[in-house]
Amino acid sequence: MRKEPFIVGSYVHIIKRGTRQMPIVRDNYDRWRFLKILNYFNDSHTPTDWERDLKIANGKTIFDRPAHWKPRSPLVKIMAFCLMDNHFHLLLKEITDGGIALFMQKIGNSMTGHFNKKYKATGSLFQGAYRAKVVNDDKYLRYLIAYILVKNPFELFPGKTENGIKNFEEKFNFASQYPFCSLGHLLKIKYFPFIELDIAEELFLNPEQFKNFARDVIEGRIKVEV
Fold this sequence. Notes:
This protein has helices at 28-40, 99-119, 138-154, 168-177, 183-186, 207-218, and strands at 11-17, 55-57, 60-62, 76-83, 87-94, 131-135. By secondary structure, it is of the alpha+beta class. The chain folds into two domains: 11-132, Transposase IS200-like (Alpha-Beta Plaits, 2-Layer Sandwich), CATH 3.30.70; 137-192 and 200-218, no CATH class. The strands form two sheets. Strands 4-5-1-6 form a four-stranded antiparallel sheet, sandwiched between helices. The chain has a two-stranded antiparallel sheet with strand order 2-3. A hairpin with a 3-residue loop joins β4 (76-83) and β5. The longest helix is centred in the middle third of the chain and has 21 residues, at 99-119. The chain is globular and about 50 Å long.
């Protein structure tokens, strides 16, 4: 599947899966580290020893940008993200030539290195190259945002059923609070100030409209091939 190069201005849906469907994160430290790299790796000037420079308070990383780093130079715009145990989804906009390719290379290398060192593993953490699909129109873009931010965290709902139609309200509330997905940011209830998110709010008039749209996606009234 085509990965690169993308034309500047392209919106691209990225999926990257663990090798043999194995987990790519095992605990909340790994999951929070994923959020950190979304922040710090979206920059052409990220230092090699970036983790060493981050402040720690009460055992937790403070997501401030170190003052001695070069001014930030973003590689991409992040529109949506969702981390699952064995894969992740990103909806990105190419804003510099080769930005998505470099961003994904940095994420893949860092996550593999961290995982192998922490869990004494070897080899690639991921199942080959990432899957990428260019978004060609607003209808597909709207659908993808619901697919990434709602359908995926629904799968983590405790005692889930195969049919996402059941308990939609309860599942939607659960998904909106899932800390490793940007749904709460879109709904204006849970913000990620440490990640620069461009969520294309013009696609949805308000959070209630998005919720109704997401319900239509989950219940199959709106279908688009992902």
